[in-house]
C-alpha cells in the first residue's frame, strides 16, 4: 500500500486537480499526502546583472516577502477547503487509519523541493506540463530523474472518477525502465481490481515477455492479462489502448535524454507527455 504521496505546488492554479488525484489514491491506500509549497528566496527575486543601492534591494526583499506571505496564506486556506471537500484529515502525525494531508513550505527552487521530499515518497503527483506557459516541465523532470520514485502526471482541470486506480494498464517492452517501473508501482497494481499489460510488437530480444510479467504479478497475488497491439508510434498508441481497455491509469517506464536524444524525455515518452489525456504514472 502507498503510505506517503508528495504533491508539490507553486500557486499556478493546478493544485486542485493534482490534490484531487492524490486524494483518490490516498483513500484507496489510506495514505498521507504532503503538499509542499516552493517559496522563492528573496535573493532569487533580484534583477540579474543590475547594481542596486541598498535601500532599493531592501524594498525588493520586503515586497517579495510580502507577496510570498500572501501566496502562502491563500494556499493554506485553499488547502483547508479542499481537504474538507476531499475528506482528508489534516495532520502532521498520520496513523494510517484514514487518508490525511499536511502542508509544508520550503525555500528554494521547485526542482530542489521535489528532490528533497520526493526521495522518501511512494508517489509524486504533478500536473501535465504546460508548454505554452512554460510551466511544469522542471517539476516533471526533477520527479523522474532526481528522486528514483514513480511520478503521476495528471491532466489539468480533469475530474477524478470514483474508480480512479481500480483498473490500471501497464506498458511492457522488457526494457530496464519498464522493469524498474513495475517494481516501483507494485502497490498501485496490488490495490487495483484489474491489471492489463499492454505490449507493442515483440519487445526487446532476450528479455522477459509480457507473459513472464503476468507470472511475476501472480507471485505477488496480482491477476493480470496481456493485450498485444501493433503501432508505428507506440507512445501514442499506449494512450489509446489504455482507454480502449477501460483502464483509468497508465503505468509506463520513462526514457531520458541519454537513451533517446532526439527529444527531452525520449521519443515515446515525449509523445505521452505531450499528448496524454489520461493520468500516467512514469518511472525511470
Amino acid at each position: 500500500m502507498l503510505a506517503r504521496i508528495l504533491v508539490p505546488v507553486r500557486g499556478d492554479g493546478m493544485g486542485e486537480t493534482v490534490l484531487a488525484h492524490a486524494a483518490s489514491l490516498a483513500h484507496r491506500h489510506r495514505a498521507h499526502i504532503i503538499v509542499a509549497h516552493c517559496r522563492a528566496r528573496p535573493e532569487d527575486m533580484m534583477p540579474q546583472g543590475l547594481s542596486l543601492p541598498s535601500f532599493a534591494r531592501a524594498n525588493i526583499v520586503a515586497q517579495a516577502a510580502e507577496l510570498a506571505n500572501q501566496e502562502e496564506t491563500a494556499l493554506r486556506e485553499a488547502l483547508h477547503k479542499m481537504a474538507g471537500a476531499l475528506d482528508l484529515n489534516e495532520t502532521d502525525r498520520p496513523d494510517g487509519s484514514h487518508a490525511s494531508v499536511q502542508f509544508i513550505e520550503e525555500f528554494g527552487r521547485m526542482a530542489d523541493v521535489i528532490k528533497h521530499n520526493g526521495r522518501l515518497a511512494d508517489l509524486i503527483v504533478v500536473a501535465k506540463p504546460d508548454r505554452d506557459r512554460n510551466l511544469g516541465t522542471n517539476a516533471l523532470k526533477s520527479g523522474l530523474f532526481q528522486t528514483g520514485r514513480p511520478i503521476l502526471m495528471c491532466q489539468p482541470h480533469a475530474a477524478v472518477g470514483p474508480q480512479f486506480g481500480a483498473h490500471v494498464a501497464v506498458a511492457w517492452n522488457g526494457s530496464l525502465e519498464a522493469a524498474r517501473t513495475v517494481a516501483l508501482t507494485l502497490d498501485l497494481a496490488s490495490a487495483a481490481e484489474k491489471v492489463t499489460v499492454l505490449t507493442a510488437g515483440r519487445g526487446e530480444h532476450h528479455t522477459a515477455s509480457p507473459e513472464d510479467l503476468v507470472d511475476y504479478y501472480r507471485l505477488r497475488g496480482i491477476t493480470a492479462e496481456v493485450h498485444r497491439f501493433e503501432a508505428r508510434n507506440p507512445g501514442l498508441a499506449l494512450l489509446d489502448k489504455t482507454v480502449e481497455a477501460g483502464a483509468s491509469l497508465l503505468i509506463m517506464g520513462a526514457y531520458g535524454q541519454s537513451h533517446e536524444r532526439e527529444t527531452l524525455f525520449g521519443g515515446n515518452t515525449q509523445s505521452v507527455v505531450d499528448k496524454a489525456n489520461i493520468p500516467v504514472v512514469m518511472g525511470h
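Residues 167-283 form a domain with the Rossmann fold fold (CATH 3.40.50.620). The chain has two domains: 4-154, 167-283.
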